[in-house]
Amino acid sequence: MKFAMKAVAATVLLASAGAAFAQKGETVKIAWLDPLSGLMAAVGTNQLKSFQFISEEFNKKNAAGVKFEIIGIDNKLSPQETTSALRSAMDQGARYVVQGNGSGPALAIMDALEKHNARNPGKEVVFLNYAAVDPDLTNSKCSYWHFRLDADTSMKMEALTTFMKDLPEVKKVYLINQNYSHGHQVSKFAKEIMARKRPDVQFVGDDLHPLAQVRDFAPYIAKIKQSGADSVITGNWGSDLALLIKAANDAGLNNVNFYTYYGSVTGSPTAMGAAAAGRVYMVAYAHINLPGELNKIVVDYKKKFNDDMYTGSVYHAFSMLTDAFVKTKSTDPVKVAAALEGMKFKSFNGEVEMRKTDHQLQQGLFISKWEKAGGKYPLDSESTGYTFVPVKYYEPFVASTPTSCQMKRP
């Protein structure tokens, strides 16, 4: 498969040729609302740096001629704190907001913007969701002002189970997830979708634990070992996945494969190390060894911060905003939201489309496996010498799921 990152820039440049930009030189403030404290601070810090770094890259060359400014605010992974942070961001002039860690905070933003935008015509704010994946956000709770750039929980589970159903060694599966909407959805869709594709698979455990509070997962690993599971499915992220994998390695649980959503996120690669090679899989819309424009950004980010740039949806955010600014010759969120609906372009993971009916990005997904870095996949994660190597790519239609969204448009 060929990836054409340059096609995005080329499309934008063509659209802008000869045009006079009403917004040229304008500063576009984007508020980033995610955790900078607590156990998930490392994840939030990485993603804030990713937004800041890629904004600087786009400031050098974006076709709309605007300057992006990122306003980072700690929401402490709390819906209540997120609402306060959003008010602060709007007071500072932000008309665009990005968030991704936790579907509770995402829903708080959506609820607040529905009210704000209805009461304040001319001061509307658009929400670009780069990682909060509860399917309800683009189904029963969908909002015109919300656009999701990640694949939701059900889409990832469709791809993951399509891969797992063809593995004869998968017979007994243990579910362990964080006790909030995302974790509940991972458990729900794993059981429902696997039953449809491999009804012979047994689920031998289904644990939910507090989000970002558990420091020792040894008791959970003991339960997994006792269950006789050959596979674990987990939507855990951040410290909750890193500490889970560490406990598995410490206990010598080397006969069980882990199927994850967020294996590349801060802390997890280091926790896995050589001991987890060949035993951890990840479903995601990207991996760090993708060719093209994103690869250069990943390499430059690593040189600057000695850290991994693993949130590829950040690139989608700036690409789509820039394209919308060019098409509308405006940075007005009302005009931009209309331009984002149905937007299609060639990206690092194939042809993508912002589905108009629910504002869920339709995109290809990879299944990758934790292996030694080298050859076609030289970039390693967290300087471990290991990386997620793609073993299967699924076109968008494989993981696409229907929507119940009844979009209320202004």
Automatic annotation (TrEMBL):
Keywords: Signal. It comes from the Bacteria. The keyword Signal applies. The keyword Transport does not apply. Gene3D superfamilies: 3.40.50.2300. Residues 27-374 form the Leucine-binding protein domain. CDD domains: PBP1_SBP-like (cd06329). Residues 1-22 form the signal peptide. Pfam families: Peripla_BP_6. PANTHER family: LEUCINE-SPECIFIC-BINDING PROTEIN, PERIPLASMIC BINDING PROTEIN OF ABC TRANSPORTER FOR NATURAL AMINO ACIDS. Belongs to the leucine-binding protein family. This is Branched-chain amino acid transport system substrate-binding protein. It comes from Acidovorax soli. The lineage of its organism: Bacteria, Pseudomonadati, Pseudomonadota, Betaproteobacteria, Burkholderiales.
